[in-house]
Amino acid sequence: MTAIETENLYRRFWRVKAVDGIDLSVPEGAIYGFLGPNGAGKTTAIRLILGLLRPNRGAIRIFGEDLRRRRSKALKNVGVAFETPAHYEHLTGRENLDITRRLLNLDKSEIDRVLETVELTYVADRLVRKYSLGMRHRLGLARALLGKPKLLVFDEPTNGLDPVGIREMREFIKTLPARTGATVFVSSHHLAEIEQIASHVAVIHLGRIVFQGGMTELRSLHAPRLEIACSDAVAARTQLETGVRGVDMRGERLVLELTSMEAAEREAAAVNRRLVEAGLDVHHLAIAPWTLEELFMQVIGAPATSRAAAEGEGGHA
Ligand SMILES: Nc1ncnc2c1ncn2[C@@H]1O[C@H](COP(=O)(O)OP(=O)(O)OP(=O)(O)O)[C@@H](O)[C@H]1O
Ligand SMILES: [Mg+2]
């Protein structure tokens, strides 16, 4: 069964084709990463999928139910959290959840269950006004989890969080399908972040899907790199040039291409051993993740241009 299926989905705002004919296919049980730079059309696509915005054309099916024809049935099993979580500041976390719980006509015990899941029980009776941003995000997730939805849609759930908050959120999302049985659709503009949690991924750029597939397929598009700093970069380069493909100097650092993510750690260790055995002191050795811009170079042969740049060019044509 497919959790979300869109067919030639299209929505524009005046001259801007925010979502330009996309066909998404989100398998049940997946963590589906929806990746794209600012203004790519992620939020618009999500609003369309949730029935919060009408498409100009195209179809959407959620677990096989047509959104246009059977809206309430299609959306019955969907939980949502947006990038800037909106809560009632003058109410406690628990009271905020209670509002949604009553709307959904759920048992009171649901509140404790979701608070527990997002680890907010300890601040449940504190006013949201006094919550940190991380807590607000987690309260948003808790609300999405009310009623045990089969599909969870998160729009940039790590937006504005610090590195610790980002890691917590990532670990949390990663475990959701196993813990709740839900399919997760999550948007982001961080390739590295999505790579660490997703099983499937779609890359959207200027409203169009430029890549869709399994994570393994995406990874095969970009072999990871190894970044090295040591006592003598030139000597290190000479050492490595035989046997390793693509060695580059970047300032004082060496950058070399590894063969695959699977082999990365083994290869990094081998390179390290070789340099140390050659009498060089290695003080930095890191497997470097690709950025979204670098991925775009690979997929569309160009860096991700902004809407303003792309439409400016179009406007003069
Ligand atoms: N309500 C609206 N009215 C007019 N234009 C809009 C509206 N919503 C979105 N757009 C435009 O549609 C395009 C896609 O916007 P969208 O918010 O979907 O992108 P996004 O991928 O979510 O970006 P971000 O990463 O910044 O959240 C942008 O050019 C945006 O300015
Ligand atoms: Mg957005």
Account of the protein in words:
By secondary structure, this protein is an alpha/beta fold. It has 2 domains: 2-220, 3-Layer(aba) Sandwich (Rossmann fold); 223-289, ACT domain (Alpha-Beta Plaits, 2-Layer Sandwich), CATH 3.30.70.260. It is built from 12 helices and 15 strands. The chain has helices at 42-49, 71-75, 93-104, 109-117, 133-145, 163-180, 191-197, 215-221, 233-241, 261-277, 292-299, 307-316; strands spanning 2-13, 16-22, 25-27, 31-35, 57-62, 65-66, 78-81, 151-155, 183-188, 200-205, 208-214, 225-230, 247-250, 253-257, 282-288. A hairpin with a 2-residue loop joins strand 13 and strand 14 (253-257). Helix 3 (93-104) crosses helix 4 (109-117) and helix 4 (109-117) crosses helix 5. The longest helix is centred in the middle third of the chain and has 18 residues, at 163-180. The chain is globular, with a radius of gyration of 23 Å. Magnesium ion is lined by residues 42-43, 83, 155.
